[in-house]
User: What shape does this take?
Amino acid sequence: MNELVHKPKTGELDTSHGPILYLEAVSVSFDGFKALNNLSMYIDAGELRCLIGPNGAGKTTLMDVITGKTRPDSGSVFFGQTIDLLQMDEPAIATAGICRKFQKPSVFETLTVFENLELALATNKGVWTTLFAKLNGTQRDRIEQVMETIGLTEHRLHLAGILSHGQKQWLEIGMLLMQEPKVMLVDEPVAGMTHQEVERTAQLLLSLQGERSIIVVEHDMEFVRSIAQHRVTVLHEGSVLTEGTMDEVQNDPRVVQVYLGD
Ligand SMILES: Nc1ncnc2c1ncn2[C@@H]1O[C@H](COP(=O)(O)OP(=O)(O)OP(=O)(O)O)[C@@H](O)[C@H]1O
Ligand SMILES: [Mg+2]
Assistant: This one.
């Protein structure tokens, strides 16, 4: 071991072995029904991972477990090597740098694009304090940078309520980015988008990997193919059915079977 290598302190995110998320033998049951069944999965730091699988496979439940919304009956969930997510509540997990985008956009429709991003800076200061406080230069730069990333710079003064469905989704991704998350979980981001919006969303997510890890759940296979550069995980009946490149999983007879039935 190189002694000069930075050794993370207790409680600090340690991704020195590669993975940023470790899920091991995780099970969740609802009234005896196993929504997750002995599931194990590892996500690398900086990775963009697509998660696919038929309805009811457990994809959303998996996100609920990672974000602390649902407690598993058994198994372990670690953020980096040392941070035990099962010992933390939802707000603590969010503060640690794991954030989530739900399917429905939840932007503030009566505020502008800029103000929505500004609000996303609010940690515990409260909405009004944040809106009336003066932004410092770093915060202003950060908002500008995020607006550029999500392609909404020219809409900065437009109310979020008049944006298209796709633009609202990008704004919400921007609001997550304001918090500089280390892991972003995105559930069905392109549902209801136009073809062009789907393509732009693919470019956006591709541009975000590397600096952070992203888990994307989607049913739109053309979209998944366009962003799946590494591993795709296929979930079925609460477990990982298989993992591999998009070509590998699409040509796997078991995957074909769970999607099409026999
Ligand atoms: N709170 C809950 N109470 C009872 N059953 C639940 C609950 N949440 C999920 N389930 C069940 O667990 C299973 C997995 O659900 P989940 O929502 O994780 O699937 P999914 O893979 O996200 O499906 P979809 O592609 O339709 O979004 C389903 O059978 C669902 O009905
Ligand atoms: Mg779901």
User: Anything to note?
Assistant: Strands lie at 19-30, 33-44, 48-52, 74-79, 83-84, 98-101, 183-187, 213-217, 232-236, 239-244. The longest strand covers residues 19-30. Residues 165-178 form the longest helix (14 residues). DSSP finds ten helices and ten strands in the chain.
